[in-house]
Structure formats: C-alpha cells, structure tokens
Amino acid sequence: MGKNMIKTDICVIGGGSAGLSIAAGAVQMGADTVLVEAGKMGGDCLNYGCIPSKALLTAGKVVRTWKKSPEFGVNYGAPEVDFQKVHDHVKDVIADIEPHDSVERFEALGVKVIQASGQFVDSKTLKAGDVTIRARRFVIATGSRAMVPPIEGIESVSFLTNESVFDLTDLPKKIIIVGGGPIGCELGQAFRNLGSEVSIVEMASIMPKDDPDLVSVIRDRLENDGISLLEQTKVLSAEKSSEGVILRVETNGEERDISGTHLLLAAGRIPNLEKLNLEAAGVKVERQGIAVDKGLRTSNRKIYAAGDVTGGYQFTHMAAYDAGIIIRSALFRLPAKVSYNAVPWVTYTDPELAHVGLSETDAKKQGVQHKVLNWSFADNDRARAERRTEGKVKVITSQKGKILGASIVGLQAGELILPWGLALSKGMKIGDMANVIAPYPTLSEVSKRVAGSYYTESLFSDRVKKIVRFLAKFG
Ligand SMILES: Cc1cc2nc3c(=O)[nH]c(=O)nc-3n(C[C@H](O)[C@H](O)[C@H](O)COP(=O)(O)OP(=O)(O)OC[C@H]3O[C@@H](n4cnc5c(N)ncnc54)[C@H](O)[C@@H]3O)c2cc1C
Ligand SMILES: NC(=O)c1ccc[n+]([C@@H]2O[C@H](COP(=O)([O-])OP(=O)(O)OC[C@H]3O[C@@H](n4cnc5c(N)ncnc54)[C@H](O)[C@@H]3O)[C@@H](O)[C@H]2O)c1
C-alpha cells in the first residue's frame, strides 16, 4: 500500500452536521473512520447557518425587549446598536461552540481527518488532496449552498448569501432579501430589530411550508415591525445603483423598482455535488439532490448520503437523524429505515413557529379523515403576564383522537413542540395530552387545553347535563 493510500471501514465526505455525527458515532463504536472536509469543520450550521442566525436574532430581540420595557413600567433610553460588536458577539458564539466540531477533537476521538476536497475515482475509491482512500462504505454529506435564482443582471450586482452575511461589520441601511422562507424571515426580522430598513420579496407566500393560519401571525408581526413584505412578487431584474442595488419587481402584473444598500439571497438551496465526480462512483442524482432509498443508500449500495445533499428535510436535527440510520445500517447491518411521521421544525422568528407531523393541508391533500383542534395563547394566563398573547396552537387528530400533527405559533413555540413529537412517535391519543397535569401558570398549558378541547362538545353536552342531574337525585 502506497504512503498516501488509506484503507478504512468508513469514509465520510463533509464535516457538517451529518458528517460529524456519523464520524463521531462510527469511531466511538470501533470503526476505522476517515473524515474528508474541504472547508470549515462544523459546516453550514456552525459557521454560516443555525448558530450565527440565532445569535444575530438574539441581539435583535434584546433591542426589541428594551424598546418594549415601558409596557412593564420600566424606562430606559433609546437603545444604541454597535454593529461591529454585534458581529463580534456572533463570531464569539461560533468560537465558543467550535472546539466541539474541531479537527483536534475528532482526531482525539480517533478519526483520521483530511482537510481537502473529496472526489471519487471509481466506485470504491476517493481522492482528497494527495491522499487516496479505499473504504468499505462511503457517506456523502457535502451539504448545500444558497441557490442564486435566475434573475436578469444578478451576476453584475454584489449580493450576500448565508456564507457572507455574518461577516458584515456595518449594519446594512436598507437590505432587500429575496426569499421569504425561514432564512429570509429570521434574518429579515433580526436586521429590522437592529435598525435596518428591510424588504422581503417572496414569489409565493412567506413560509410556504407552514400552516397559513399560523403564518398569518408571523406576517402581522413582521409588518408591524416595519418590514416591507412583498409577497406574490417576482423579481424581474437586478442592477447596480449608486446606493447599492435596484431590483425591478412585479406584483399582480404591476412593475416597480425597489432599491437597497444590500441584497441578500435566501431563495432556497442547491446540493453540493459538482466536485464529487459522482458518475465515476455510480451515484445517481435527481433534481433535488442525491437519490437515496429509505435506508439512505444511493444507487451504489456501498455509498450512503445524508443531510442537505439529499434535498430532503434540510435541518440539522434531520442530518443527525440520518446519521443514526446510517450507523445502524453500515456498522451493524441492521435494516434501518427513515420514518418521517414525526419530523419537527421551528422557525425562530419572534414569535416562533413550530411544527411536527401531519399538517391540516397535508391531511386534506392525502384525504386523511381528521379533526382540527385550535387554542389561543390569549386564553393562557402566563402569556398574559408576559404580555405575549399573540399565538395559537393547532392540532390534527384522527377521528378517534390519535395525534397526527401539531403546529404552534407563539412565545417559546420551539420549546413547546417537543411533547407533541413524543406523543406522535409513541402513537399517543389526545386523551394522553389532555390528562397530563400541567404546572400553572406555564405556556405548556396551551397543549393541555387544546387537547382538552377535543372533549368539550361531548363533555358539556345536554346528555352529560342530564346524567349529572339524574345522579344528583340520589343524594
Ligand atoms: C442561515 C441558515 C440558518 C439555519 N438555521 C437552522 C436552524 O435553526 N435549525 C436547523 O435545524 N437547521 C438550520 N439550518 C439548516 C442546517 O444548517 C442544515 O440543514 C445543516 O447544516 C445540514 O448539514 P449537512 O451536514 O448536510 O451539511 P453542511 O453543514 O453544509 O456540511 C457539509 C460540509 O461538507 C463540506 N464539503 C462540501 N463538498 C465537499 C467535498 N467535495 N469534499 C469535502 N468536503 C466537502 C462543506 O465544506 C461542509 O462543511 C440553517 C441553514 C442556514 C443556511
Ligand atoms: N429555523 C430553521 O430550522 C431554519 C432556518 C433557516 C434555514 N433552514 C433550512 O434551510 C433551508 C433553506 O432556507 P431558505 O429560506 O433559503 O429556503 P426555502 O426553500 O425554505 O425558502 C425559499 C423561499 O424563497 C422563495 N423564492 C425562491 N425563488 C425566489 C425568487 N426568485 N424570488 C422570490 N422568492 C423566491 C420560495 O418561494 C421560498 O418561499 C430551509 O428550507 C430549512 O430547511 C432552517
């Protein structure tokens, strides 16, 4: 074997959320593991995604809370934002988490880390820098990047993506965001709270993957915050201006120009595939990414794919979920298969919007017989004490009360969704949630109350009243 040839059990390509989970799991379970990473360890989530976006959102929330303080009888002066320091805070949070994902930590676990771009030579061999790797199993976990939408003139203007936006050290005066998905809404609100003028241009409706009834709460809030939301709006062209950029947009057949100092593209993702030479490995690609079966195997049975590169649910927790499936299959040869009936997600706007399982729209589309339960945060005493009564819960059950899905918009919705995920994965019925003792006064009571509403009609019916009156006769 040549000096630069490595033979290993598992070779993982990409050290982001998926790749790191697989490499850490595999090596600690005794497999010889090689990890190939071309860029920064930690991938998008740590460096250009979840972590910096949440850190920026938190800075924005501090400003908003400060401004709201008179409602609570507390007065401060106007908040002053030092954006260089906001930037430093964001980078500091990344630096704080970085050691967990570092080359040093992985090498200490026993993983051989190669810092180079990986490229298949044939179905069993990968080249990374000057190293050739032969592995019993490969895992492709190369993630995704921002899609640049086909807008006339886009290449002639400078634009930000999630990879560059967190490097800004000056607050954008006027930022235009193309795309009103989770990235557009989260970052739009963060910049607005910090003092930018913000426009979000969305060709459909904002947050189209979520329940429209609940999204309306987010829409109201973004508009009240002063964000200009241009929905059902097409971007026709982009051109440079003295200020920065001008976009020509069209809403309902009407064209107009909007101008900004900065342009952020948040219009969806494309998988990172080009450098992998997948043809040589016999790995098939579909429109959304690498094609995988339910066991996350590609068309080459010895090569798996995980995380964003498959174009499935593009979340860090789903990348970690994929990792668990692959470890069971590749290391233990168990017939592990993905199951997507309890997939949660949260958009960290304020208020947050969280979802798990079947939505009302999907239940209707799939012709599933179902019941819809609703409850408002306005009826929750804790939400009143916090002055945060905007919000609602919607739960989908079968006709017989089996929990099928839940969506929550409101304060701490992301924290409130977990019991619904547990209920779904354990096949629980709505009575299980209705009977739980919820501490008072907590926001969690919304879950108990929405579950209880399943019984309201039958519990407070004329029939029950008759029975109670009849029994009262017996003393
Ligand atoms: C702004 C933003 C906010 C987000 N917020 C959240 C959130 O709050 N919660 C959530 O769950 N998800 C969030 N996501 C999504 C989440 O970041 C992704 O789902 C997750 O990072 C996917 O992990 P991955 O391992 O598939 O890919 P990545 O994390 O992108 O990792 C892929 C890695 O592969 C490397 N690579 C690529 N090609 C090669 C090659 N040929 N050779 C070697 N290495 C290569 C890359 O350098 C990268 O490090 C957010 C995403 C963005 C952009
Ligand atoms: N909180 C979270 O968990 C979180 C946060 C951010 C991102 N993410 C993940 O990252 C993924 C990517 O986020 P995203 O917001 O970029 O993508 P997305 O695909 O979810 O949303 C993109 C939006 O852009 C719109 N769009 C596309 N082309 C357009 C155009 N030319 N003009 C106007 N609008 C256009 C789409 O209609 C869509 O609403 C998400 O789907 C999610 O999986 C998760």
TrEMBL record:
Disulphide bonds in the chain: 45-50
Entry-linked Gene3D superfamilies: 3.30.390.30, FAD/NAD(P)-binding domain
GO MF assignments: flavin adenine dinucleotide binding; NAD(P)H dehydrogenase (quinone) activity; oxidoreductase activity, acting on a sulfur group of donors, NAD(P) as acceptor
Domain named FAD/NAD(P)-binding: residues: 9-322
Cofactor(s) this protein requires: FAD
This protein's record includes keyword Transmembrane: no
Pyridine nucleotide-disulphide oxidoreductase dimerisation domain sequence ranges: 343-448
Cofactor annotation remark: Binds 1 FAD per subunit.
Transmembrane parts of this sequence: none
Keywords annotated in UniProt: Disulfide bond, FAD, Flavoprotein, NAD, NADP, Nucleotide-binding, Oxidoreductase, Redox-active center
Similarity remark: Belongs to the class-I pyridine nucleotide-disulfide oxidoreductase family.
Matches recorded under PANTHER family: MERCURIC REDUCTASE (PTHR43014)
Record-given protein name: Dihydrolipoamide dehydrogenase
Organism: Kiloniella spongiae
